[in-house]
Amino acid sequence: MSNKLWHIVDVRDVADALLLVYEKAESSGRYICAPNSVCTKDLVDLLRKMYPQYSYVNNIVDVDRKAGLSSQKLKGLGWRPRKLEETLSDSVGCYEKAGLLQGSAGRNCRLPHLFRLAGDQ
């Protein structure tokens, strides 16, 4: 997998941000709603620590990363997003409940196609 930078936001935080912007008279312009920037390697390491029972990729290739995003303007209005660990924990719990993390016939669960391997075009 490519060690690219991911901007992760909890959908509940997006809803909170939207309501906050609508309710605050001083809000204007565009707001970036991306409180958690993490590279693939760090994300996999965090998930591995939180959920050691799952299989993870070991071959992560460094690539040029784009600049990070800032949600500082939104936080200035009083927006308080969830921590990355809470978002991941709730997401994995939801995926487990839905049966999305179960492999078939002893095979490991495959990641969605949006996660491309380093050599994929």
UniProtKB/TrEMBL annotation:
Keyword Oxidoreductase: yes
UniProt-listed InterPro entries: NAD(P)-bd_dom_sf, NAD(P)_dehydrat-like
SUPFAM superfamilies: NAD(P)-binding Rossmann-fold domains
GO MF, one annotated term: oxidoreductase activity, acting on the CH-OH group of donors, NAD or NADP as acceptor
Superkingdom of origin organism: Eukaryota
Protein name as annotated: NAD-dependent epimerase/dehydratase domain-containing protein
PANTHER family per UniProt: NAD DEPENDENT EPIMERASE/DEHYDRATASE, NAD-DEPENDENT EPIMERASE_DEHYDRATASE DOMAIN-CONTAINING PROTEIN
Acetylation as UniProt keyword: no
Gene3D superfamilies associated with the record: NAD(P)-binding Rossmann-like Domain (3.40.50.720)
Keyword line: Oxidoreductase
Organism: Aegilops tauschii subsp. strangulata
